[in-house]
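Notebook B, p. 112. Complex prediction, attempt 2.
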Amino acid sequence: MALEGLSKGIFRSIGLLKSKRKIDDEELREMTRSLRRSLQEADFNVRQTKEIVEKMESRIRDEELRPGITLQTHAMNILYTELVRLLGSKHEFQPHGATLLLVGLYGQGKTTTTAKLAEWYRKKHGLRVGVIEADVHRPGAYEQLCQLLEESTVVVYGEPETKDAPTIVRNGLKQLASCDLVIVDTAGRHQLDAELVEELEQISALTNATERWLVIDAQVGQAAGPVAASFHSLAGVTGIVITKLDGTARGGGALSAVAATGAPIVHIGVGERIGDLEKFESDRFISRLLGMGDIQGLIDLAPEDMDQEEAMRLTQRMMSGRFTLNDMYKQMEMMSKIGTIDKLMSFLPGNMLGGMGAMSKGQKAEMQANLDRYRTIMDSMTAWEKNEPAKIKAERIRRVARGSGVREKDVRELIGQWNKSRKMMKGMGGNRKLNRQMRKMMKDGDMDGMDPSSLGM
Ligand SMILES: Nc1nc2c(ncn2[C@@H]2O[C@H](COP(=O)(O)OP(=O)(O)OP(=O)(O)O)[C@@H](O)[C@H]2O)c(=O)[nH]1
Ligand SMILES: [Mg+2]
């Protein structure tokens, strides 16, 4: 199976830690058992699963929680760093002067990737790139490659009539001698059989390829491990390209390929067209793997990141009933950075601030867009207007709209939003229990010891 269930599984497992700051051995065991099952179901191999689970167990047991961080966030953080570690380092590929051999099983996307890579390095690095079609088994491979590169200046070398791949490669290398980068597409198989092994060995020796990249379809799952291992022993894989990440697969099997070869993922394919290639970025890959819109929002929650002092100052102002447009802007800015309101001030009742819980990627994007517009509008306001938005009358609204190049409606919307937020803040000020907690927190200078459940959350 692919990884549809991983996200759910992980959230179910880590969800067991919800609103806890301490857990006993039994609870910890239950969580790790659930996590182990989720990882295995998501194509992680036994060794990887064991490593991750053990790390999780010991770090949760031994590490002290940072102030303001829930156990759940801490666990997610550990999982994330472990996954990044598993994915290895960044690949430093020097395309100039390189010969790049692409290998992989049948239908994984080698030919498409050959064209994509050629175009990528031609365009982004300004290199003269040539490609050699050395697949003599797949009918029409040469035409396929030519067609993919139809509109590109990449030189395609092939001999559709020749049945001997090493000959084509030998001739091609001569023909493309003046190119800065040569990429060789090879034949695929259902399995790595003796004939292909021999062919690949010959080509590999001939090209003396500086780079040998394995192309793997994201849907391959667990099988990616053994496949990668056999290609690795054959050609010494130096990089991995995961294709078809635009589909439903999340690419967890790719992790076993990385583990089997020790080679990093260099690029990912995200579509059938020649431009559908991306450089691999582990954060984005992992957030995809875990099914999160933006994992940064969930994990990077060290108090220093959320600017605790600023958050507290803001909270204090809100509680005191003074709440200007600038305050609202800062509050929204923090929220958009952190992505979840309950994390910004985990001690506030859940329905505060319009009842927003964790924000989706879409909501974050929307908030960001709003913020940008609000910023523009606010830049056209006087200090007095920002401090006393309630007193802004039609004439001023017109002037501000004109000054900032937006519609009057947008200015009214900003003021309306401020009004809504202010009302919520007022409601919060009336919560005595919360007030007491807040004062204590400010006196102590951190959020430790805050118990959200005591606030009826
Ligand atoms: N959606 C999507 N399709 C892809 C991607 N990469 C390749 N494909 C498609 O996958 C199919 C197989 O791709 P090829 O490039 O022909 O694969 P191959 O490894 O060269 O296949 P053989 O030469 O038969 O071994 C084609 O229909 C491609 O358009 C990708 O990143 N996303
Ligand atoms: Mg092919």
